[in-house]
Design a protein that fits this description.
- With 100 residues, this protein is mainly α.
- 84% of the residues lie in helices and 0% in strands.
- It starts with a helix and ends with a helix.
Length: 100
C-alpha cells in the first residue's frame, strides 16, 4: 500500500508541476478539436479519419497563432503552451474518432 501511495504522490507532484495554465491549454485544444471534428461529421458527413484530421490540424494551427498573439501583446511565446494545446487537440479529435 505504501508503494501505491508513493506512486500516487509522485504522479500528483509531476502533474502539478506543469501549472494550471498548461491544463487550460490542454482543455482548449481538446474542445477545439472535438467540436471541429464533430461539425465535420455532422454537417459535412465526412468519415471519422477525415474528421479526426480536420479537428487535430485545426488545433495545431490555432495553438501557435494564440502564442503569436500573446507575443505581440508583450508576453513570451511559450512552446509548452503550444505543445499542451496540440496534445489536447489530439485527444479531442481521437475521442470523436472513437465514437464515429
Amino acid at each position: 500500500m505504501k508503494k501505491i501511495l508513493k506512486i500516487w504522490d509522485n504522479t500528483a507532484e509531476w502533474l502539478c508541476g506543469f501549472g494550471a495554465e498548461r491544463w487550460v491549454h490542454f482543455a482548449a485544444g481538446l474542445m477545439i478539436a472535438f467540436f471541429v471534428a464533430l461539425a465535420d461529421v455532422e454537417i459535412w458527413n465526412r468519415e471519422g479519419i477525415i474528421a479526426f484530421s480536420t479537428g487535430f490540424l485545426t488545433a495545431c494551427f490555432i495553438a501557435p497563432l494564440k502564442e503569436i498573439c500573446d507575443f505581440f501583446r508583450g508576453e513570451r511565446f511559450d512552446m509548452g503552451d503550444v505543445f499542451f494545446t496540440v496534445l489536447g487537440g489530439f485527444f479531442g479529435a481521437f475521442m470523436l474518432y472513437l465514437t464515429v
